[in-house]
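Lab notebook, page 48
Experiment: co-folding of the full assembly
Goal: obtain a model of how the components sit together before planning crosslinking
Operator: M.T.
Materials (sequences as entered):
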Amino acid sequence: MKKLALNPTSHRESLDDSAEAGGCDHSVQFYESDSFLADRVSAFMKAGIDAGDSNILVATPEHRAAIEKRLSQSGVDLAVLTFAGRYFPLDARETLSKLLVDGSPDENIFNQIIGGLVSQATNGKRRGVRAFGEMVALLWADGKYEQAIQLEELWNGLGRTHSFSLLCAYPMSGFNGTPHREAFNHICRAHSSVLPTESYTASSRNDEERFRAAASLEQKAKSLEAEIVQRKEIEERSRLLSAIVEFSDDAIISKDLNGIITSWNSGAERIFGYKSEEIVGRSVTMLIPPERLYEEPNILARLRQGDRIDHYETVRRRKDGVDVEISLTVSPLKDDTGKIIGASKIARDITERKRAQQIQQALYELASAVNRSVALSEIYTVALTTVCRCQSAQRAAILLYDADGVMRFKAWHNLSEEYRRAVEGHSPWQRDDPSPQPVFMDDVAHAPLEDHLRAVVNREGIQALVFLPITYEGRLLGKFMIYYDAPRHFTVEELRPAQTAVSQVAFAIERRRTGETLEHMVNERTASLREAIAQMEEFSYSVSHDLRAPVRAMQCYAEVLMEDYGAKLDDNAKKYLDRIIRGGTRMDRLIQDILTYSRLSRREIQLHPISLDKLTREIVRQYQDLNSTGNSDISVEGQLSTVVGHEPSLSQAISNLLNNAVKFVAPGTAPIVRVRAERRNGDVRLWIEDNGIGIKPEYQHRLFSVFERIHPERNYEGTGIGLAIVRKAAERMGGKAGVESDGLNGSKFWIQLPAAENA
Amino acid sequence: MNMSSPIILLAEDDDNDIFFMQRALRKAEVNFPLHVVTNGQEAIDYLGGAGKFADRTQHPLPSIMLLDLKMPFLDGFEVLSWINAQPSLKEIPVLVLTSSAEERDRQKATELGAKGYFVKPPTIETIRETMRFMSEQSPNVALSA
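Observation: model returned without errors.
Model output:
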């Protein structure tokens, strides 16, 4: 094929070259206007006529008329040429219809018609031939691109056996759009030269101008390509965004500032039930329940100010009249100039989420009732309400095994007495079933029920029901019944809230039972303890009466002996009698102290405010009265405040401390005892300080135990119970007792009790 | 006016304690006859003149009664309760003489109408107190020393 020639002059030269070479010069002319086409074709033909060539014109009648008109104007007499056998005009459409077999150009017919004509036009190869054809353009315009290329190839094939110059023409408008790029290249390849449209082939242009035009064209093509890439990206993004909007689970709606819906995605259709065509163009208030209509003006007002509304939880009404809970996000929509022209609304269906929250709340309330250990009957009521709410059930009941192993109604919601009587005792499980499973009756009409049960269930209006076993650690305690007024397909999954509630109930029941057992046990033990205490009291009483009687007898008889027969006894006998008397005295005191100590330990004592000042001074006075011969110096310092205690116990404790203080002095020392009191936070501590022999710190811990003696009996008489009584008394009164001593400089005993409020 | 000699009634089951009482009376030089019953039932029978105590010349009503608390058959408290229900016996002062120093016994005896409460053994002081009660109750009875 020849090189593309932009210049018609060089094109003609090339045609001449090709003619000499005995081949076919096949050019294609693109055009925008018919008049340009007529100019080019008439010029092409005129050049041939001037050179003495023949012309074949396969054109539409309009193009032929325009071409012939131009030739006549340039002085060509077509009638003469026709007569001379140098001009062969053919109707393009008519000729094309002859060539087509099954829609495709047939090679044989082509060679026969066109080939024959070319042969005739050469007049035995004496003349050159120029042909113009636009059958391919007709095929192209009809969208038969493949057939157009086939026809071009047929022309080329003819060129291998005949020598002629061929000019084809296509209107440029036939190549708009990307899909034509490949076809355009194909057509260009099918021709030895390609002539651009009039925009680039104006005859006035010189080479310089044409190169500039080509460069400009190249630049245009580049920027066009870049723009195309950019546009593709935008298109892709836009397609993606539309897909996101379309396939979103959320409703994405746009509306104008009057609240008129302007777009509606499939999420909106799913949530609200309206199809796009039913609602676009209508007011958004269609979706708003009447009691919430006030919301829309507020929303619109905020939008006009450019505000955004985030996650506003509200209720909207579906097409079927059911209210749906949604979370609404509304943002203003702006045009290119930033003016607010409407709003986009994203509505998320939060009905499920709200419901899940409600279920959580209901279960939480139940758990909290269980944790608060409220009465079982109250827990049952909460559990029934909770389960009805969570499972959208109309009725529910709790049945538990009674002592005879019969399942009986413990609590119920919405069940008639007749129903309860009829079904009581019935259970789908054996009591010893190690893992009883829930039983579902999706539709009682099809459930295997005994006739009388079916009748009572029907009368109650129950159409579906669930038996949930109430178990605790593998033991079946009873059943939890859930009833529905309509058939229902149950799943284990949806009954999960009920299962949770049931396990709470089981836990509450079991804990209550454990509690009752424990209480029973405590009561029994308390009773036996009381009995033991009573026996102990009886024992103490016996001790105080019966044990002391023989001791007293021994003591008294020894005294009688001494009094009545002392004169007849020698000193040894008198000494022995004295030992018997002292032993008896000691034994008697020991018994009394033990009684006092045990009485302190077990007696219930009542605490009252006691004036420590009055009590202490009274005890000291009594002591001094009883020991008027003694040389002891006892002083009470200052005003002693008021404490809370049990007067007999406190009196006993102070007496004991006083006795000790006076008793434990070194031989030959006159006892000096100081009594004083001090405040210690909310307590009062009574100090009894002596100048006695003291107690070394290492022995002090033993001091307050029963029968503990630090100092030998030989030196200091005593039962070893006195201080144990002091400490026990203090403890029973909510106080304490102790001692401070270095073992050399006397002892400081103290007893500490809570201060009376106004002290 | 009943000028017969005043009688002391002692309800006591322990022989030793009876001996110590007799000795205390002797030491206090009180010579009134001491009648002894050895359990609560006998005490009631004596006061009520029942059974072997029917003869009031042998078993005259006492001017004062010393009552042990812990006795066989009926105890001292039961005797006190019975006496309370007998209007004719209200005049006789009852003094408790017991080995129990327990506060609750002292309280209970006082509530049941005992006029005094002594812890054994009886001493001369006990006897003097007893005589004081007796003279308050029957001023016309000369305390013969």
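Interpretation: The first helix of chain B runs from residue 15 to 27.
Next step: discuss with group before ordering constructs.
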